[in-house]
Amino acid sequence: MQTEISSNVSRTIQTKLVLPPDTNHMGTIFGGTVLAYIDEIAAIAAMKHSKKGVVTASINTVNFLSSAKVGDILTLEAFVLSTGNTSMKVYVKVECHHLKTDEKRITTTSTITMVAIDDNGKPTPVPKVRLESDWERSLLSEV
Questions:
Q1: Which pTM was predicted?
Q2: DSSP string of the chain?
Q3: What's the pLDDT score for residue 76?
Q4: Are 114 and 88 in contact (CB under 8 A)?
Q5: Model confidence over 91-124: pLDDT tens digits?
């Protein structure tokens, strides 16, 4: 498959509200909850790119940089960063917005490898990705 698709095709943004059941005894969001959000948005971005079902092959990196508390708003952004034959490396950034102070900060960054699958559950080729910004290209050297 020689087709090349813009990273903007896969770009996905989700917004989540941090609620009390999402938090631990310290009043901050569970890391596992954040990981579930990251896995979900990475899958959506990979499916938008490949037009196929996908499975998570690996969580390559997760960087917990800061936390979020009840009432904070999380904005997740994901896009396909690179591709192999059947795999896609998806970059995910999680930003926290604290409404009372209007402070925004990145809480988590991650890269996840997703594999496209056909109707029989077998890996299937994916289009190449074309990165659209210098920032996106700079991420390749970091992962």
A1: 0.94
A2: ---EEEHHHH-EEEEEE--GGGB-TTSBB-HHHHHHHHHHHHHHHHHHHHSSEEEEEEEEEEEE----BTT-EEEEEEEEEEE-SSEEEEEEEEEEEETTTTEEEEEEEEEEEEEEE-TTS-B----EEE--SHHHHHHHHH-
A3: 98
A4: yes
A5: 999 999 998 999 999 999 999 999 999 999 999 9
